[in-house]
Specification:
alpha/beta, Quinone Oxidoreductase, Chain A, domain 1, Rossmann fold, 2 domains, seven-stranded mixed beta sheet, 11 helices, binds zinc ion
Length: 346
């Protein structure tokens, strides 16, 4: 084993440097993982551009990752060298009131691997074994990076109790939106109506079995949803776009008794928002944050068994040496990219 390993360090907004560091050592209960692939998402772009509040630099980003166990520390029972794994990046302290209630995703003291602590845009990471999940051998590791996003999508849909026969609108068909469309279909919801301004993403949504698609750049959104639901409006609207301007139409397109699931997030204020529709239609509003360990196993099974289609989600891959170019490309055209994957070094 080499004694040095490389990591992509964000030293200032938009400045990534490849730095050689001593290879970390797995201590008791931990495993050393050789990173094979890290997917870059909107959260990373916010950190990279300095728009994410409260992130302290220098920082190694990266939280959607898959790799191969290289060594395990004393007492590790569930993993062995050579095993392919994904990581759960939601690090919890295990001691606060949220953790005590089994809601480590709301931990008051820890946070996201690759944001509150150094992450996987590196050749190696060390994590406690509880955060590492074995993968079946047939799954490609680059594709497996999407399982983290799928687990957050599952977490949100379980919270909102999306079920059979409900009409569901998914606003935004980026990687998470497309996964919302697929999971709603798998839950037996219908019609599932996919909304995007991108014809390419709507074509993907159709392939993912959306019952109807709406091009938000061409059609009146509320009228299109009413037409697709026989005039009733939708039982559930999932905002996977995170665009504040969509929230008022989202409330308007809901049927009486409907549910708004706010998955995509924004720091910007919501225009034209009043609480009146919450009263008048007795709506339910859900937020959803990240994932819990209970979401990871089912997400792996959905991909391993072929129920969820991840074909076409990876827009481009870059070796670790070209991580800066990857982020430049991402910032230039975020709407045209589902996931960029950073591979191992050359
Ligand atoms: Zn992410
Ligand atoms: Zn905690």
């Amino acid at each position: 084993m080499d004694h040095l390993t490389r990591a992509a360090v964000l030293t200032a907004p938009r400045r990534l440097e490849l730095v050689a560091r001593p290879t970390p050592v797995a201590r008791a209960g931990e495993a050393l993982v050789r990173v094979a692939a890290t997917a870059v998402c909107h959260t990373d772009l916010e950190i990279y551009t300095g728009r994410h509040p409260g992130v302290r630099l220098p920082r190694v980003m990266g939280h959607e990752a898959a790799g191969v166990v290289e060594a395990v520390g004393p007492g590790v029972a569930s993993l062995r060298a050579g095993q392919r794994v994904i990581l759960n990046p939601i690090i919890a302290c295990g001691a606060c009131d949220s953790c005590a209630r089994g809601r480590g995703n709301l931990c008051r003291n820890a946070g996201l691997f690759g944001r509150e602590m150094d992450g996987s845009l590196a050749e190696h990471v060390v994590l406690p074994e509880a955060y590492l999940y074995p993968l079946p051998d047939h799954l490609a590791l680059a594709t497996a990076t999407l399982i983290e996003t799928l687990a957050t999508v599952r977490h949100a849909q379980v919270r909102a109790r999306i079920g059979a026969g409900e009409s569901v609108v998914v606003l935004g068909q980026g990687a998470a939106g497309l996964l919302h469309t697929q999971l709603a279909k798998l839950a037996g919801a219908g019609p599932v109506i996919a909304v995007s301004r991108s014809p390419a993403k709507l074509a993907l949504a159709r392939r993912m079995k959306a019952d109807a698609v709406v091009d938000a750049s061409q059609e009146d959104l509320v009228a299109a949803v009413r037409a697709a639901t026989a005039g009733r409006g939708a039982d559930v609207v999932i905002d996977a776009a995170g665009a504040p301007a969509l929230l008022a139409p989202a409330l308007e397109m809901l049927a009486p008794g409907g549910t708004l699931l706010v998955y995509g997030i924004s720091h910007r204020p919501v225009p034209d928002f009043t609480t009146y529709p919450l009263y008048f239609k007795e709506l339910t509003l859900y937020g959803s944050r990240a994932l819990t360990p209970e979401d990871v196993g089912p997400a792996i099974a959905l991909v391993a068994g072929g129920a969820v289609d991840l074909e076409g989600f990876i827009t481009a891959t870059y070796p670790l040496e070209r991580v800066a170019a990857a982020f430049e490309d991402y910032e230039r055209a975020p709407g045209a990219i589902l996931r960029l994957v950073i591979g191992p070094g050359a």
